[in-house]
C-alpha cells in the first residue's frame, strides 16, 4: 500500500467513486478513502436483518447519467436497472389514483377522476419534456462564472441565452414559471384533481425544507422529472440488489481502472502547505500525500471540519457557514412476512410493483409541512413507499418482502426540549400507523423495522443535518451558486483541493454528474 498518490478522493459514495474511475482511466494514481465499511455513501445496500437487504437511504434510481453508464461500461460491471411500474395513490375514501407506465391505462385512470385532467396530462408531459430537453445539457456542463470577465465563461452564458431565445414562447413562459413558482401553484394551472396535484407536487419537496406551496419547489419537481433510464424521460427504476448495486458497479469499474479503495478509514484533516493541498491525515494517525485532493463530502465537513480557518479566506468561510442544509426527511425500512393489502385495491397485483404515495390532497401535504415548520415531525406525513422484493426477489427470503418508506417531514432541528434519540420510536410508529390507515394488515406483517431520523443520516452517513442532497436544492443554491457564489466550478480557494459531491452542480440524487464533471476539470487543470 503506497501513501503517495496523484489524487486522494475523500468519500466512497457514488460521486466519489465515479470521480475516481474517470481520473484513473486518464492514467492518474488514485486512492478513495471511505469512513464506513460499506461503499456507496447514501446509495448503499445493507443486510440489516438476516436475509433482508435494504436500500437503506436512497431507494430508487432515475437520474444516473447515461454517459456515465456508457463510459464506465456499468452493465458489464453488474449494473441492471429494473423498471418501477407507476405510482399508486390510495385515498381515504377507498378510491385510488394509479398512474402506470402504460399510457392508455393511465389516461383512462385519470379520466375516471377528471376527463379534463386526462387531456391536460398529455399536454403537461409534452411541456415538461420540452423544458427537460432545454435543461438537460446544463446537467453535463460546468457552470459558467458570471462574476468573472473570462470570454469563455461569457460565451457559455451567451450560449444559454441563445438557447432560451430559440425556445417557443410557451416553453419560455413555462420555464420561467418552473424556476419561480411553487409546485402546487404550477400544477394548479394544469389540473383539477386534488390527489393528482398532491402526488405530482411531492417531487417538488423531496429533500427540501419547503412545502408544496413554497416558491421554488416547481424547480425541484423538474429536477426529479429529468430521470432517464435508456434515454426515456421520467423513467424510474430499482437497481438489482438494491441501490448499492449502482455503487458496486461503479466501484468495480474504478478498481478495474486501477483505483485503490480504502474502507473503514476516516479522514481527520486535509493538510495544506503554502496555500496548496498536500495530503490528508487519517484518524488512525496515518498521513497520505497527493498534490490533488477531491472531496465528495459536503462543504461543512470539507471546509469547517477538515481545514483550519487560516487555510481559507474569511468571506468564503462565512458563505460556507451560511450554506443551507435543513434536513427534512426520514426513512423507515420494514421487513415483512407477506404483502400489505391496500383497502383501495385488495390483493397482490401490479399496483404494488411501483411507488405507493401517501399524498391524498394538496392540503394534506401542506399540513404535513406545518408541523415541521414548528420543530416537530409530521403526524400525518407524506410517505413514498416501494416494495423492491416484488421486482427483485434477491433482496428478501422466499415469501418475505422488504418495504422502503421515505418520509417527509422529519426536521433535523426540533423545538427546544425534544431530541431525535427519544422521538425515533414515536416517529417510526407514526409512519406505520399512517400506512395502516390504508393497508390495515401491515402491522401484523412486520418482522423487523429500521427507523432512520435526520440525526442518524448525519451520524452514520455524514450527511450534515440529514440533508439527502448535501444541501437544499433551492434556487439560491443551484447552478453557478452551488455551493458558494464564485466557487462553483468544483475548485476551492485552496489550490489542488476540489469538490466532487452532491453539494456541487448539478446537485443531488443518484446522478454521478458532479463526480464526472469535477474529474474533467481536475484533468483540465493538470494538463
Written account of the structure:
It is a single chain. By secondary structure, the chain is of the alpha/beta class. Among the domains are: 179 residues, FAD/NAD(P)-binding domain (3-Layer(bba) Sandwich); 117 residues, no CATH class. It is built from 17 helices and 21 strands. The strands form 6 sheets. It has a 7-stranded mixed beta sheet with strand order 7-6-17-18-19-16-20, with helices on both faces. It starts with 6 loop residues before the first strand and ends with a helix. The relative contact order is 0.19. The model has no long low-confidence stretch (mean pLDDT 92).
List the helices and strands and how they pair.
Elements (H helix, E strand, L loop, with lengths): L6 E4 L3 H12 L4 E4 L11 E5 L2 E4 L10 H6 L9 E3 L3 E4 L5 E4 L3 H11 L1 H25 L11 H16 L2 H12 L2 H6 L5 H8 L15 H9 L2 E2 L2 E2 L3 E3 L4 H13 L3 E3 L4 E7 L2 E7 L4 E3 L2 E4 L3 H7 L8 H9 L6 E8 L18 E4 L3 H12 L8 E5 L14 E8 L11 H17 L5 H4 E7 L1 H8 L35 E3 L13 H14 L1
Parallel strand pairs: 1-2, 1-15, 2-11, 6-17, 15-21
Antiparallel strand pairs: 3-4, 5-10, 6-7, 8-9, 12-13, 13-14, 16-19, 16-20, 17-18, 18-19
Helix pairs in contact: 1-10, 1-17, 3-4, 4-6, 6-9, 8-13
Amino acid at each position: 500500500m503506497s501513501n503517495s498518490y496523484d489524487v486522494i478522493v475523500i468519500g466512497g459514495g457514488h460521486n466519489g467513486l465515479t470521480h475516481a474511475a474517470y481520473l484513473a482511466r486518464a492514467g492518474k494514481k488514485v486512492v478513495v478513502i471511505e469512513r464506513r465499511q460499506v461503499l456507496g455513501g447514501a446509495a448503499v445496500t445493507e443486510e440489516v436483518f438476516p436475509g433482508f437487504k435494504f436500500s437503506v437511504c436512497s431507494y430508487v434510481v432515475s437520474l444516473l447519467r447515461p454517459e456515465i453508464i456508457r463510459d464506465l461500461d456499468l452493465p458489464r460491471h453488474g449494473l441492471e436497472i429494473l423498471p418501477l411500474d407507476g405510482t399508486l395513490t390510495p385515498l381515504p375514501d377507498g378510491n385510488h389514483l394509479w398512474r402506470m407506465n402504460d399510457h392508455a391505462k393511465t389516461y383512462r385512470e385519470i379520466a375516471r377522476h377528471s376527463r379534463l385532467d386526462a387531456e391536460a396530462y398529455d399536454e403537461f408531459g409534452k411541456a415538461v419534456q420540452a423544458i427537460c430537453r432545454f435543461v438537460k445539457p446544463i446537467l453535463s456542463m460546468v457552470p459558467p462564472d458570471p462574476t468573472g470577465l473570462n470570454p469563455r465563461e461569457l460565451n457559455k452564458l451567451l450560449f444559454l441565452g441563445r438557447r432560451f431565445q430559440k425556445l417557443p414562447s410557451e416553453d419560455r413562459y413555462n420555464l420561467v414559471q418552473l424556476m419561480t413558482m411553487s409546485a402546487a401553484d404550477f400544477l394548479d394551472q394544469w389540473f383539477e384533481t386534488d390527489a393528482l396535484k398532491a402526488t405530482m407536487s411531492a417531487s417538488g419537496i423531496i429533500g427540501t425544507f419547503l412545502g408544496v406551496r413554497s416558491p421554488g419547489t416547481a424547480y425541484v419537481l423538474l429536477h426529479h422529472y429529468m430521470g432517464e433510464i435508456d434515454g426515456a424521460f421520467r423513467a424510474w427504476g430499482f437497481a438489482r440488489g438494491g441501490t448499492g448495486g449502482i455503487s458496486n458497479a461503479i466501484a468495480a469499474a474504478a478498481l478495474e481502472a486501477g483505483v485503490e479503495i480504502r474502507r473503514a478509514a476516516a479522514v481527520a484533516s486535509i493538510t495544506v502547505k503554502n496555500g496548496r493541498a498536500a495530503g490528508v491525515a487519517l484518524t488512525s494517525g496515518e498521513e497520505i500525500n497527493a498534490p490533488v485532493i477531491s472531496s465528495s463530502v459536503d462543504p461543512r465537513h470539507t471546509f469547517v471540519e477538515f481545514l483550519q480557518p487560516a487555510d481559507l479566506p474569511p468571506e468564503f468561510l462565512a458563505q460556507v457557514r451560511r450554506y443551507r442544509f435543513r434536513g427534512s426527511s426520514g426513512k423507515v425500512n420494514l421487513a415483512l412476512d407477506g404483502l400489505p393489502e391496500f383497502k383501495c385495491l385488495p390483493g397482490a397485483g401490479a399496483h404494488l410493483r411501483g411507488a405507493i404515495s401517501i399524498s391524498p390532497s394538496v392540503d394534506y401535504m401542506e399540513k404535513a409541512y406545518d408541523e415541521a415548520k414548528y420543530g416537530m415531525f409530521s403526524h400525518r406525513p407524506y410517505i413514498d413507499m416501494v416494495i423492491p422484493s416484488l421486482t427483485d426477489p434477491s433482496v428478501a427470503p422466499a415469501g418475505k418482502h422488504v418495504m422502503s418508506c421515505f418520509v417527509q417531514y422529519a426536521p433535523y432541528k426540533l423545538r427546544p426540549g425534544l431530541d431525535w434519540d427519544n422521538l425515533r420510536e414515536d416517529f417510526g410508529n407514526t409512519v406505520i400507523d399512517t400506512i395502516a390507515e390504508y393497508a390495515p394488515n401491515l402491522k401484523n406483517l412486520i418482522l423487523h423495522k429500521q427507523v432512520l431520523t435526520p440525526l442518524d443520516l448525519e451520524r452514520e452517513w455524514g450527511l450534515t443535518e440529514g440533508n439527502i442532497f448535501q444541501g437544499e436544492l433551492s434556487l439560491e443554491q443551484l447552478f453557478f451558486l452551488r455551493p458558494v457564489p464564485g466557487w462553483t466550478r468544483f475548485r476551492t480557494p485552496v489550490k489542488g483541493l476540489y469538490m466532487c459531491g452532491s453539494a456541487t452542480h448539478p446537485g443531488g440524487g443518484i446522478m454521478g454528474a458532479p463526480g464526472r464533471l469535477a474529474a474533467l476539470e481536475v484533468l483540465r487543470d493538470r494538463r
